[in-house]
């Protein structure tokens, strides 16, 4: 139901898990076996296409009241929070961030993306 609800354009997966996926329309990139294809991609960063109100990620509720629901979150608030964290705490290239929060909780977003700013 997550793939059905989210309709991702690209799906990152491990090849040995592909048979477990339900039917979907996403382009699949196997991060454990397609390194040659990945290496052919340009090394420069692509031109930004995201907007502040564009979708950044979807996180699903626990489903305690029935089927889990996807909560859509925009880029603007995520970027705002990350910029504040960087200004307040100054994470540098030699620092590490403990990924302590389960990825199913929205607080985990900062732990995933903040280190990518350094």
Task: Provide key terms for this protein.
118 residues; alpha+beta; 2 domains; two-stranded parallel sheet; 4 helices; 26% helix; globular
Describe the structure.
It comes from Corallococcus exercitus. InterPro entries: AMP-binding_CS, AMP-dep_synth/lig_dom. This protein folds into two domains: 1-43, no CATH class; 51-118, no CATH class. 26% of the residues lie in helices and 16% in strands. It is built from four helices and four strands; from the N terminus they run H-E-E-H-E-E-H-H. The radius of gyration is 17 Å and the shape is globular. The model has no long low-confidence stretch (mean pLDDT 91).
Terminal CA distance reads: 35 Å
**Secondary-structure element series:** HEEHEEHH
Q: How big a fraction of the residues is strand?
A: 15-25%
Radius of gyration: 17 Å
Question: Largest beta sheet, briefly?
Answer: 2 strands, parallel
Number of domains: 2
Helix share bin:
25-40%
State mean pLDDT (0 to 100 scale): 91
Poorly predicted regions: none
Class inferred from helices and paired strands: alpha+beta
Output the number of helix runs: 4
The count of DSSP E runs of length 2 or more, i.e. the number of strands, is 4
What is the approximate shape? globular
Q: How do the strands of the widest beta sheet line up side by side?
A: 1-2
